[in-house]
Design a protein that fits this description.
Blueprint (H helix, E strand, L loop, with lengths): L20 H5 L14 E4 L2 E4 L2 H19 L4 E4 L6 H15 L4 E2 L7 H10 L9 H4 L4 E5 L3 H4 L1 H12 L3 E5 L12 E3 L6 H14 L5 H7 E2 L1 H8 L4 H8 L3 H13 L3 E5 L1 H4 L4 H15 L10 E3 L6 H6 L16 H11 L11 H10 L4 E5 L3 H4 L3 H10 L2 E6 L11 E4 L8 E4 L4 E5 L12 H12 L8 H11 L8 H7 L1 E3 L25 E2 L18 E6 L24 E4 L1 H6 L7 E6 L3 E8 L7 E5 L27 E7 L3
Parallel strand pairs: 3-4, 3-11, 5-6, 5-9, 6-7, 8-17, 9-10, 11-12, 12-13, 18-22, 19-21
Antiparallel strand pairs: 1-2, 1-13, 14-15, 15-16, 18-23, 19-22, 20-21, 20-23
Helix pairs in contact: 2-20, 3-20, 3-21, 4-14, 8-11, 8-12, 8-14, 11-12, 17-19
Length: about 650
């Protein structure tokens, strides 16, 4: 069959009949002539088509050789935030049970790992605190480091509707993002100064007594330490660091502090920094000070995820230090539960994170790397070093829809099914499980990730059980009790279920922490975190700051949207430049420009716009010709290793014909 159109279900409990331009129109890739339809194996003459049997045998022999030569930790896997929960569960189970390593990670490492670390440290769980329906009831929205109008259009439209109904809006973002023109206050901090900004807002809340003293006394800890720290963040001092005028900072704090039902929504502009986890912690402080989390007096702190299953991939344990449900691999009790269910001992030390995998490959310590649905050469930072890592690894397996930039460096390429060709579940940004069902079969010899993992396991001599996705989710509920009440059958009846949901006869918790926080003592944790500078700052050699992000018509690396109808809406990458910077560099709109950083260079077409402030540039990473991530650095969040995509010092010059 063919997909003629995509129409969102009007009775859908989450989207309510709405879809973004990508969801509606970016399905042409399904039957693109560039789809991978049979396995490819690298031989002397290059990549050659082979049978599944030959490809699987080559992979199994390569995995055995790596383990025999250097032990289980010589093998690693990068799972996929585009894969289903069940596929992610099976991938991490294979790595831990069959290979015997915790070397498994997913792309949340590169976007929202600071959210997981920061929110769990502040409140106890690694997810947003409230549902989108809750957020829609807010009388004040604080939208930070996010452009939902372009990057999350369904959410963006619903936030805008709430503003048009009378909610006050504070936007904090260096760029004039889509919601900014509707904001009561638009804070435009210098990139990399979020912690100072959030500390400044907290200073005003405390100074003007816009806090919930009873909540702080009964349900939080850490106030004395935070109060002492915030003495150093009065509005004038914060202005010197962030560039935000003191009067704007005070106005924003008062709007949030005087609201009856405030909500915080944030994106990658908070997390993708050298101190991204500190950014999440200090942002969470604001909700805690206001008593606006775990109560009916506000709607907490809610991250907008980067891909369709970023939340779910992490929930399922595709992480080097956490098992399904976020139990630590180093915790004997947590590990013992999984060992009893899986029937084998598990390694108790943390595995490698994605950046560590690449470093190990360059050093010769990693001998096999399995990359599932991720184009790391396009999306990961310091791309030249990523390529070096892949070329240094004896066995690289790429599981993909297309011959991506990453697949071109692989030894074995496996043709995978897309989301419209598979069965399972995803988890959205407010922790709701939803079903996905196949609308058509994968083309030719392509297989679902679920089937591919089973096939590799069988070739390796391992039996993972879980014959169907439904069985995999059921087993995951045994390992992770927070998911025990969720099943395919129940989702087919109810449509969407949020976790935690330990009981099949009770609803999941859409709003968290009403009784207690999920910390050992049940109290929220305020964090006294000082501002520290970003990894790079402008200087005479590199006087501009580059911010990277997304455009409205494209999805992530662009491998799907560049092969769909949406390419006509946004056919090429471009570099946003403020008019004053364009004039200084004698650049006109549409000119070819060269951008250089300490790490690499890339070319773009200039787009002169006041959406970006003077001294800053913006580009996306959807087009391989642009090579935006050849520019970005290896600087990463000190807690989670999330890259600092939002602050790169660069220089600019026009390219003469």
């Amino acid at each position: 069959g063919e997909v003629a159109a995509v129409r969102p279900a009007h009775d859908g409990p989450v989207n309510r009949g709405h879809a973004c331009v990508k969801g509606r129109f970016a399905h042409g890739f399904l039957r693109s002539p560039e789809r991978l339809t049979q396995p490819l194996l690298r031989r002397c003459s290059g990549l050659e088509p082979v049978s599944w049997e030959v490809a699987l045998d080559h992979i199994a022999r390569g995995l055995r050789a790596a383990v025999t030569a250097a032990g289980p930790d010589a093998v690693a896997a990068i799972s996929s935030a585009r894969a289903t929960n069940e596929e992610n569960y099976l991938i991490q189970k294979f790595m831990r049970v069959a290979i015997g390593t915790n070397n498994v990670d997913n792309c949340s490492r590169l976007c929202h790992s600071p959210s997981a670390a920061g929110l769990s440290a502040a409140f106890g769980l690694s997810g947003g605190t409230d549902s989108l329906e809750d957020v829609e009831q807010a009388d004040c929205l604080l939208v930070v480091g996010a452009n939902p109008v372009e990057a999350h259009p369904v959410v963006g439209a619903r936030l805008l509707q709430q503003v048009l109904r009378g909610a006050r809006l504070v936007v904090a973002d260096p760029r004039a993002v889509g919601l900014a023109c509707h904001a009561d206050v638009h804070l435009r901090p210098r990139p990399g100064t979020n912690v100072a900004l959030f500390n400044g807002l907290a200073h005003v809340l405390l100074a003007e007594n816009l806090v919930d003293e009873e909540f702080l006394r009964l349900r939080a800890r850490g106030l004395p330490e935070l109060t002492a720290l915030l003495d150093d963040y009065p509005p004038d001092q914060v202005a010197a660091i962030t560039g935000v005028p003191p009067e704007d900072l005070v106005a924003a704090a008062r709007l949030y502090g005087q609201a009856q039902r405030p909500a915080i929504v944030y994106g990658l502009g908070v997390t993708e920094h050298l101190h991204g986890t500190d950014g999440v912690r200090t942002l969470a402080n604001l909700a805690t000070l206001r008593g606006a989390v775990g109560t009916d007096r506000g709607f907490g702190v809610n991250p907008l995820r980067g891909q369709n299953n970023v939340q779910g991939a992490s929930d399922m344990g595709a992480l080097p230090d956490l098992l399904p449900g976020y139990g630590k691999v180093s915790d004997p009790a947590v590990r013992g539960r999984a060992e009893r269910i899986w029937g084998t001992p598990l390694p108790g030390h943390d595995g490698l994170r994605i950046p560590q995998m690449f470093a190990a490959a360059r050093e010769g310590a990693l001998r096999a790397l399995w990359i599932i649905g991720e184009d790391v050469c396009a999306t990961d930072p310091d791309a030249n070093r990523v390529v070096e890592a892949l070329d240094s690894c004896p066995l690289v397996i790429s599981q993909e829809l297309f011959l991506s930039e990453t697949a071109r460096h692989a030894d074995v390429i496996l043709p995978a099914a897309s989301w419209l060709e598979k069965d399972g579940t995803f988890v959205n940004f407010d922790r709701r499980f939803q079903r996905v069902r196949p609308a058509l079969d994968p083309p030719d010899q392509a297989r679902t990730d679920f089937a591919i993992v089973h096939a590799i396991a069988a070739a390796y001599g391992a039996d993972l059980g879980c014959a169907t996705p439904a069985e995999a989710l059921a087993e995951c509920g045994q390992v992770a009790p927070a998911f025990a009440g969720i099943s395919h059958r129940r989702l087919d009846r109810e449509g969407a279920i949020p976790w935690p949901c330990p009981d099949p006869d009770r609803p999941g918790e859409a709003k968290l922490y009403l009784d207690r926080f999920a910390t050992p003592d049940g109290l929220a944790r305020l964090a006294a975190r000082p501002y520290l500078p970003p990894g790079e700052s402008p200087d005479d050699d590199y006087p501009l700051i580059l911010i990277t992000g997304r455009r409205w018509a494209h999805y992530n690396s662009g491998n799907m949207t560049r092969r769909s109808g949406t390419i006509e809406l946004d056919p090429s990458d471009r570099l946003d430049i403020h008019p004053s910077d364009a004039a200084h560099h004698t650049v006109r709109d549409g000119d070819a420009v060269l951008v250089e950083s300490r790490h690499g260079q890339a070319t773009f077409a200039a787009c002169i716009t006041e959406q970006i402030p003077p001294g800053q540039l913006f580009c996306a990473f959807h087009f391989p010709t642009g090579r935006a991530n050849a520019l970005t650095s290896s600087h990463a969040d000190t807690v989670t290793s999330c890259p600092e995509y939002k602050v790169t010092a660069v220089r600019l010059r026009g390219i003469q014909d």
